[in-house]
Amino acid sequence: MYHAKNRGGDAYEFFEGDMHERIEKQLQLDHVLRTGFLEDRFSLVFQPIIDIKNKSSELFEVLLHFSHPDFPNVSPAEFIPLAETTGLIRPIGQFVIRNALLHLHALDNQGDARYSLTINLSPRQLQDETFVGFLHDQLKDYRISPGRIILEITENSLMENNSRIEKILEQIRELGCLIAIDDFGTGFSSLSYLRRFEVDILKIDQSFIQRVPDDEADSNLIRGIINMARELGIVVIAEGVEKKEQYDFLIENGCDMAQGFYFSKPVKAEHVYNNKINY
To answer: Residue 278: inside a domain, yes or no?
Structure first.
């Protein structure tokens, strides 16, 4: 039934043996996630986002890490959709924001208030009417300027034309936080939301970056995105940069920022505190 619903409804699915195995694994993972808070199995890591011109970073993407012996290699791409389905995404999302701001507050206290953070939001969080109030309270408690927080959402979230999502995005803007479109280029083709929602940042999906500069079509597409964003006053971040040739291409074409293994893998908080990151 749920497989059919995930296809958009008005569909059917035949039961197959491997479905039972997948369901059992999901039930086990759901139990492990729910106990993970009590066992301190969630943590945050930070991936530097590099200013391309001077190859320095004052911006980090906050990434969620989960560790458990029964699920040693489980990634957010696997457990976040499950958490959205079960409703667990709300406490997980609150954990991420609370601890991200706590780390930023700690950096401020050691006299280093130059950093900002990007934090991913799930579609379910964008429909939670308590979210903005929670974010406001956390910003106030940790004395963090809202302009230092960038909230990443997907294109598909904006294309749902949901009045509740639109209202929450307006409240986020009023609060003073910035809005970034994550994985840009992989969603729907309409670009009207760039002005409708006052988008601040576009993050070009890594699938396009991986093929430049060899792939002419992707190279032209990225040039077009960068030029369009520049005309609209929107900052562009390239995701998944892994090679010098990709970095050189982005410099040549005026991209603002980039992130990826070419610069740094995600690092633990103490590396940020101790400035132990080399680009």
So the answer is: no
